[in-house]
Amino acid sequence: xxxxxxxxxxxxxxxxxxxxxxxxxxxxxxxxxxxxxxxxxxxxxxxxxxxxxxxxxxxxxxxxxxxxxxxxxxxxxxxxxxxxxxxxxxxxxxxxxxxxxxxxxxxxxxxxxxxxxxxxxxxxxxxxxxxxxxxxxxxxxxxxxxxxxxxxxxxxxxxxxxxxxxxxxxxxxxxxxxxxxxxxxxxxxxxxxxxxxxxxxxxxxxxxxxxxxxxxxxxxxxxxxxxxxxxxxxxxxxxxxxxxxxxxxxxxxxxxxxxxxxxxxxxxxxxxxxxxxxxx
Length: 280
Known about the structure:
By secondary structure, this protein is α+β, with helices and mostly antiparallel strands. 47% of the residues lie in helices and 17% in strands. The chain contains 9 helices and 7 strands; from the N terminus they run ααααααββββαβββαα. Strands 1, 2, 3, 4, 5, 6 and 7 form a 7-stranded antiparallel beta sheet that branches. Helix 5 (62-76) packs antiparallel against helix 6 (80-112) and helix 6 runs antiparallel to helix 8 (218-228).
């Protein structure tokens, strides 16, 4: 069942769709099958680059290559002040780019800290403490004041249950939870019969049935967006890149013309001095 439809169903229908008894929970064999199907309840991240590689990566652009070329020319002709300015621009650009990318690299680690290490779950009719990463869709969890919600789930029992969802919705006030089905297509903040991974129970207690784990949870979707985000150039950067290419191409053409002209002039001078030039 798609998570977007869970809050439209009553608690009995949701339990039936996930084939679980709220009193007994899942048995060991079913847990193994669901772990194979859904994977562990954890946020995945791509291989992280070292700080050195992130920094070096800031120098891989055409405009930076042009600046490096200008730096070398400035040093060669003795324009030390110009060379110093160009060098400062290169370093500042690299530092700013490094800070931006490094923050994105750290974002996944920050999201992982929102997860609880242990959770109270109903398994084989007993309440047990298990590793949060071993939770699967269909698990029945006991939640109470102070608990960190380890996965997205449907509230099936509650007594004055409230959660703080600022990590997802930005809403600073706690949200009172209900067990009744809700109508229509609702935003996260309005799904009052749902609880979400990374949020905290601020009051009351209850039971939830896990509907989504790991990267399928709402916080997992955020993590995926952070991981897959592509570095987009600003309009100014795009114009500078194009301008750099134009100047770069122009510089190459001028350099070739000067080189050819120099060779031709040198050949003419040699011919004149040797007396072989036409007219002598």
